[in-house]
Specification:
With 314 residues, this protein is of the alpha/beta class. It folds into three domains: 3-82, Orthogonal Bundle (Arc Repressor Mutant, subunit A), CATH 1.10.10; 90-163 and 269-305, Periplasmic binding protein-like II (D-Maltodextrin-Binding Protein, domain 2, 3-Layer(aba) Sandwich), CATH 3.40.190; 169-266, D-Maltodextrin-Binding Protein, domain 2 (3-Layer(aba) Sandwich), CATH 3.40.190. The chain has 13 helices and eleven strands. The strands form two sheets. A six-stranded mixed beta sheet has the order 2-1-3-10-4-11, sandwiched between helices. The protein has a five-stranded mixed beta sheet with strand order 7-6-8-5-9, sandwiched between helices. α1 (3-15) packs across α3 (29-43), α1 (3-15) crosses α4 (59-82) and α2 (18-25) crosses α3. The longest helix has 25 residues, at 280-304. The chain is elongated.
């Protein structure tokens, strides 16, 4: 029996339509239909209730799906066992938010290139919202992003790892900071423009929650599409930014920018997400990301003397 037919039935049962199953498996709807028909012929039973208006499995079909999951898992385990001593190889499509790009993506790429030269990396940089859509459409294999991944709470088919956290502070040029005590500094901050990430990002949501909790809803927020655009306006004195100091360590040390002494929004937590049963290359990238982020956090602590990046994975 062709396990590809079983995998197709599993995907079809999960997504609920032949079109979405075809998209998920990068084949045509005709191919999906033919695989299901071949599987029905092999088993001698009907798996799809074709009298229903929407896709519905027959009772036999539901039972076959459950058994298929076990068979596919065992088959993958046997393949992994036979290839245990083989070097990790193959394409891995990484999706990452800009925060990762500016902190530890380059060290990760360098380490993988050195330790696993047969892994062929392809990098996409986008917002967490867009990365999650790309991941669900199987356009990327592993993503490093900062938004809660809802499908992982509804299915055990995903690996979700907390990798690191970036504390957020209020930062501006020194001439904008009056040095008021913490009790009054927040009111001083909202007299300026507040610079933050894009409107649908988690940092923006955290900022809005913070402002509401402190009765500062009248703040003027400027959402920007990239970290670089935030930093440019920050150095130009356009406003006060609610961002991780990790981005501007050198400017803080040299006095070009300063921290405000007052409460700030929640830290940004970075998550790594892949599918269970992903290729050895994908799992290796996720594993090494934890180590690289840990090493980066230690280096930041040593260089800056402040925990402006915290490792969560090791």
């Amino acid at each position: 029996m062709n396990t590809r037919f079983l995998e197709t039935l599993i995907v079809l049962a999960r997504v609920g339509s032949f079109r979405e199953a075809a998209e998920a498996m990068h084949v045509t709807q005709t191919a999906v239909s033919q695989r299901i028909a071949n599987l029905e012929d092999d088993l001698g039973i009907e798996l799809i209730d074709r009298s229903a208006r929407q896709l519905k499995l027959t009772p036999h079909g539901q039972e076959v799906v459950e058994q298929s999951r076990k068979i596919v898992a065992l088959t993958k385990g046997l393949h992994q066992l036979s290839q245990r001593d083989a070097p990790v190889a193959g394409p891995v499509r990484i999706g990452a938010v800009e925060t990762v790009v500016k902190t530890w993506l380059s060290p990760l790429i360098k380490e993988i290139s050195t330790a696993c030269p047969l892994i062929d990396l392809e990098i996409s940089v986008d917002t967490s919202r867009n990365l999650q859509e790309m991941f669900m459409r199987r356009h990327i294999d592993v993503m490093f992003q900062d938004m809660h991944f809802l499908p992982a709470t509804e299915s055990t088919g995903y690996l979700v790892r907390q990798i690191c956290a970036y504390p957020v502070h209020w930062i501006s040029r020194p001439d904008l900071c009056s040095g008021l005590p913490p009790a009054h500094a927040l009111k001083e901050i909202i007299s300026h423009r507040i610079l933050t990430f894009s409107r649908f990002s988690l940092p923006h949501a955290n900022l809005q929650t913070f402002l509401m909790d402190h009765a500062l809803e009248n703040a003027r927020i400027t959402n920007l599409p990239s970290v670089e655009s935030i930093l440019q306006l920050l150095h130009d004195g356009y406003g006060v930014a609610a961002i991780p100091p990790m981005f501007v360590i050198a400017s803080l040390q040299q006095g070009g920018l300063t921290l405000w002494d007052c409460p700030a929004p929640q830290p940004i937590t970075m998550l790594g997400v892949a599918r269970r049963g992903a290729s050895a290359g994908v799992l290796e990238v996720l594993r090494r990301a934890l180590g690289v982020a840990h090493a980066t956090a230690e280096r930041v602590q040593q260089d800056a003397g402040r925990p402006w990046m915290r490792s969560l994975g090791e």
